Amino acid sequence: MRTGTLMAAVMVLALALPAAYANGRVFGDGSLPMILQEFDVNGDGVISEEEAQAIREAMRNRRRSWIEQWDTNGDGVISEDERQAAIEGLRQRIEERREEHFTEVDTDGDGSLSLEEFLAIPAVQRLEEVYPGRAEALFEMMDENGDGLVSREEFLLYLKARIPMGPGDGPNGPNGPNGPNGPNGPEDPEEE
Ligand SMILES: [Ca+2]
Ligand SMILES: [Ca+2]
Ligand SMILES: [Ca+2]
After folding, report:
1. CA 151 → CA 9, 37, 104, 106, 117, distances in Å?
2. pLDDT by residue (tens digit) across 79-133?
3. pLDDT tens digits, one per residue of 30-49
């Protein structure tokens, strides 16, 4: 049931989050989840009532602008077709971002990633720092046909299969849970 997912996620964000984190409540180990950090204006690690209001406001605006975007015929209702179109649009955007990401990391522009190019990706370097040896194993996993290179297709295929939520892995793609791609990974196992 993909159709309800988008709206459901928006509703959850709009309603549940601010309520849960209002009143100066501290999250988990005391650090705020990323989505809330940007609202922790004074940086004390706690969402004050005032900051919680700002969150609610931002969520409302976001939700409104999404609805405006989806309701292409302007009747104030998101029809099934409009919902599908919105999801399709998001899917395309995600794929475009992934394509761009590949182009960025394929530094010699030959259309495939060498191991060196792969290891030069900042996110991969971070992975390697935390789990030494992991990056190379990952590269081999992505290299489906085992020719020692990760082609554009192999790269995209891998992202599609492993990271359905979106290109938060991209250097410029902080995958804010508020990103419209968040609740709408192109892959929804229930539907396939
Ligand atoms: Ca409509
Ligand atoms: Ca290359
Ligand atoms: Ca390959």
Report:
1. 34, 37, 13, 10, 12
2. 999 999 988 988 898 889 999 999 999 999 999 999 999 999 999 999 999 999 9
3. 566 666 777 777 778 778 88
Distance 138 CA to ligand 2 centre (A): 17
How far does the centroid of ligand 1 lie from the alpha carbon of residue 72, in Å? 6
The residue written with tokens 């209702």 in the block is: 77
Q: Where are the beta strands (DSSP E) in 23-119?
A: 112-113
Q: Looking at the CA of 82, which ligand is closest?
A: 1
Q: Which two tokens stand for residue 38?
A: 């940007």
Q: Which two tokens stand for residue 70?
A: 């989806």
39 CA → ligand 1 middle, Å? 32
